[in-house]
Amino acid sequence: MKKRVAVLMGGWSSEREVSLSSGRGCVEALKRAGYDVTAIDLTRDLGALIKALDPKPDVVFNILHGPFGEDGRIQGLLDILGIPYTNSGALASALGMDKAASRAMFQAAGLPMAPGRIWDRTMLLAHVEPERPYVVKPIAEGSSVGVHIVFESDNISLRQIATDLAAHSRVIVEKYIPGREIQVAVMGDRALGAIEIRTKRRFYDYVAKYTPGESQHLMPAPIHADAYRAACELGVAAHRTLGCRGVSRVDLRYDDTDGEPGTLYLLEVNTQPGMTPTSLVPEIAQHNGISFEALCSWMVENAECDA
After folding, report:
1. Active site residue 288
2. Which one-letter DSSP state was computed for residue 196?
3. DSSP assigned state of 113
4. Mean local confidence (pLDDT), 238-263
5. 210 a catalytic residue
6. How much is the pLDDT for 142?
7. What's the confidence (pLDDT) of residue 206?
8. Is 249 a catalytic residue?
9. Which of 16, 103, 245, 249 is catalytic?
């Protein structure tokens, strides 16, 4: 019999459209792979969700992004229902989404990170501006939503940033790391490889991520061989530190301003990486001979729950 797979997509976070784009592609790929697939556009009506999951599917393919779908809450519900689901469990998902919590975990594990601190809104409004350039980002957002990078010549204040981020009670303020944007795909217990992203925009923001032609992807990342190996090792170490499973994407900065090999800095782990036409994990997998269809199938066959 065909394995029955329910694809959770949509939701109500700022990344809803990204999730829908990912979900549509995954639904079609899973159908081609021979699964019996049902697409579910998640709403706040949990009764409707539980009804949609009755009878229970064999696996939930979770492609939700942002709060509720990526932060351990939907994972906890699926654990209660006893339904296996793709990618990380509730705890690892919660840690990955909360950048303050994951940052503390990475520091305790001795993984290299940019100098930074956690501020609440009062501190953001009251503090003297850090030395430029610096980065301010929300604790629990994805796809670079709400990220501010302040360079020397920028005409913006912390108060203006606080106004822009009024919906967020806490932020991370970090030293800006010059150099290159490197991301590593981890599948199970191994790194699939590291990719470099270049964009003409100020940084790899939401538009650069999801608009065709706004960024250039270089796979494999054209960096020193020792740095490439170290990036892959750092990606796996970060994945394991949070207790991730399935597929994750690890974001790094590579400072080669003083020559190669340079210095790597860990930014964050994405426990629910995008699967859109411009997403990086499918591209890295493809470079390894793993088709989009095969990647989705692997995620289904390796689904788990903590019931």
Report:
1. no
2. E
3. B
4. 96
5. yes
6. 64
7. 67
8. yes
9. 249
Active-site residue (options: 11, 14, 15, 205): 15
Which CATH architecture describes the domain 4-86? 3-Layer(aba) Sandwich (3.40)
Read off the pLDDT of residues 7-32 as tens digits, 9 standing for 90 and up. 999 999 888 998 999 999 999 999 99
- Say whether 251 is catalytic: yes
Of the candidates 143, 215, 248, 297, the residue annotated as catalytic is: 143
Catalytic residue among 146, 274, 279, 297: 274
Catalytic residue among 79, 141, 268, 283: 268
* pLDDT at residue 39 tops 70: yes
Q: Which residues pair with 190 in a beta bridge?
A: 187
Could you tell me the residue ranges of all domains in the chain? 4-86, 96-112+179-294, 116-175
Cα–Cα distance for residue pair 244/93, rounded to 1 Å: 8
Catalytic residue among 210, 228, 254, 265: 210
At 8 the three-state DSSP class reads strand
CA torsion sign, 90 to 92 to 95 to 98?
Answer: negative
Which residue out of 19, 62, 248, 270 is catalytically annotated? 270
Q: Of 144, 111, 142, give the one whose Cα is nearest residue 238.
A: 111
Report helix, strand or coil for 46. helix
Look up the pTM and report it: 0.91
Specify the CATH superfamily of domain 116-175: ATP-grasp fold, A domain (3.30.1490.20)
Judge whether 102 counts as a catalytic residue.
Answer: no
Asked if 65 and 22 count as a contact pair (C-beta separation under 8 A), the reply is yes
108 pLDDT band (50/70/90 cuts)?
A: very high
Give the CATH H-level superfamily of domain 96-112+179-294.
Answer: ATP-grasp fold, B domain (3.30.470.20)
